[in-house]
Amino acid sequence: MSDTADGLGMFQSVPGEYEAYQKASTSECPVSGMGAEFMPFSEEYLADPYAFFRRARAEEPVFFSAEMDAWVVMNYDDIVAIFQDPETYSAALARHPVTPLCPAAATLRDKLEITTEPSLVDEDPATHRDHRRIFGDAFTPKRLREIEPRIRAIVTRYIDRFIDDGEADLVKQMLYEVPALAIFIFLGASDEDAVKVKILGSKRALVNWGRPSDEEQVEMMAGMGEHWDFTKRLVDAALENPGDNYMGDMVRIYRDDPSKFTINYLYNVAFLMQFAGHETTTQASANGIKALLEDRGEWEAICANPDKMANAVEEILRIDSSIFAWRRIATRDTEIAGHQIMAGQKILLMLGSGSHDDAMFPGGAKFDHERRNAKRNLAFGHGAHFCMGAPLARLEMKIILEELTRRLPHMQLSPDQDWEYIPTLTFRGVQKLLVEWDVEKNPG
Q1: Is residue 3 part of a domain?
Q2: Model's pTM, two decimal places?
Q3: Residue 374: which of 390, 361, 359 has the closest Cα?
Q4: Reduced to 3 states, what is the DSSP secondary structure of residue 283?
Q5: How many independent structural domains does the chain possess?
Q6: Quick one: CA dihedral 124, 125, 130, 136, positive or negative?
Q7: 118-141 b/e with 16+ CB inside 10 Å = b?
Q8: Which of 383, 340, 328, 338 is nearest to 89 (CA)?
Q9: 204: closest CA among 180, 175, 188, 227?
Q10: 82 to each of 28, 32, 64, 188, 441, how far by Cα in Å?
Q11: Which of 190, 238, 389, 444 could form a disulfide with 1 if both were Cys (CB 3.0 to 4.6 A apart)?
């Protein structure tokens, strides 16, 4: 889960901070060897971007990509420095689509009554700090303790459905829905609505950060209005009768001091969380279980030592994050690792590369559930925009791993399966995960 993803940028119809910054010409930026080779939508790259990352960190850790019209940054320290300076490196373009909308989708968008505004992921730094204190601080340990048993019960119920089958597609049969159910418990919505919203948002990552077809853009846009209407009903119900949940907490804050944020802003945050609060956790969990089962020694180690589970989650987030790249735009002329960056130029932060950087994580390509600094991974960003939902995502992933290792320690990957990844610039997630086990070995 991340406060860096929601897919709303395509709705912004008035000039904003992004447009104010986007004034630099990049047509004469030098395209070097790595820049020419950087093809983030190619099948080879999508299957294994880490091979390219290793070469780039060694040969050219900062380069210009004409393909993406952006400077690409690979090293951990450079990425962290950019995150730590939101005044120079703005998040204003975070939600702007990589591929412009086709005319049919744009026409449909203009007919929708969706009143978006910058919210958390793309606000100016001062506004973001104020709102982050309100919306981020509400992810309290108390709230997490309250929902932990309910999340564990959901995970148990899903495993019960397939444990006697001897095989499963973990994405389809558990990981697709469980994180959506968890975020809806947190928000105070019903289980039935969670699955519906998951379906409505299924193409948001592709449409906003990929290269979708016109048909995919129109299909996603058609569902967006329905999703927005649902969000308004969810918030309006909380305004009428605030429950003992996150949304109820936000309503109570609003009632105490309406100057802190508007109702429309609350609509936007709730809309964001319904996507960012589950899609990333689905993908991170799938990537992580795949990585563990590919390294049998690591899988067996955490099966035998459940007290290591929390650190194993951090290593999962480091080794193959669901958000492995993110974007910024320069607000003024600056310099990154000796390269001159002009105001208005876009920057692509390769979080997946930074989290493999041997300078920070020795032997970074190897999974190590006991890695001491695994928690310094970049899966949740860094600095001012560090993911406010990180505690909930970590809790969900920990519970999923605990229950799978406890009940199916003998589980293994099904042989000869093809790995299909979501084809986007920033999101990474295996789309199916086939596993099998000997039912006779199931614990009693």
Answers
A1: no
A2: 0.91
A3: 361
A4: helix
A5: 1
A6: positive
A7: bbbbbbbeeebeebbebbbebbee
A8: 328
A9: 227
A10: 23, 22, 16, 36, 50
A11: 389
User: Could you list the pLDDT tens digit for every one of the 444 residues in the chain?
Assistant: 333 333 344 444 333 555 556 655 455 577 778 999 999 999 999 999 999 999 999 999 999 999 999 999 999 999 999 999 999 999 888 777 888 889 999 898 888 888 877 777 777 777 878 888 888 877 888 889 999 999 999 999 999 999 999 999 999 999 999 998 998 899 888 877 777 777 777 677 888 889 999 998 998 888 888 888 889 999 999 999 999 999 999 999 999 999 999 999 999 999 888 877 788 899 999 999 999 999 999 999 999 999 999 999 999 999 999 999 999 999 999 999 999 999 999 999 999 999 999 999 999 999 999 999 999 999 999 988 888 889 999 999 999 999 999 999 999 999 999 999 989 999 999 999 999 999 999 985
d(CA 389, CA 91): 18
Maximum distance among all Cα pairs of the chain, rounded to whole angstroms:
67
Q: 361 lies in a domain?
A: yes
Of 82, 85, 86, 84, which is closest to residue 71 (Cα–Cα)? 82
CATH number of the domain at 327, please.
1.10.630.10
Q: Is there a domain that residue 1 lies in?
A: no
> What are the C-alpha distances in Å from 188 to residues 234, 243, 245, 272, 275?
9, 7, 6, 15, 15
Tell me the C-alpha distance between 91 and 83, whole Å.
9
What stretches of 122-161 adopt beta strand conformation (E)?
none
The two three-digit tokens of residue 218, written as one number: 């129109």
In DSSP notation, 318-332 reads HHS-SB--EEEEESS
Q: What is the DSSP string of 40-109?
A: TTSHHHHH-HHHHHHHHHHH-SEEEETTTTEEEE--HHHHHHHHT-TTTEE-TTTTS-SSPPPHHHHHHH
- Say if 403 falls within a structural domain: yes
Token pair 């086990």 is found at: 437
- DSSP per-residue codes, 336-401: ETTEEE-TT-EEEE-HHHHTT-TTTSTTTTS--TT-TTGGG-STT--GGG--TTHHHHHHHHHHHH
Task: State which residues form the domain around 176.
Answer: 9-441
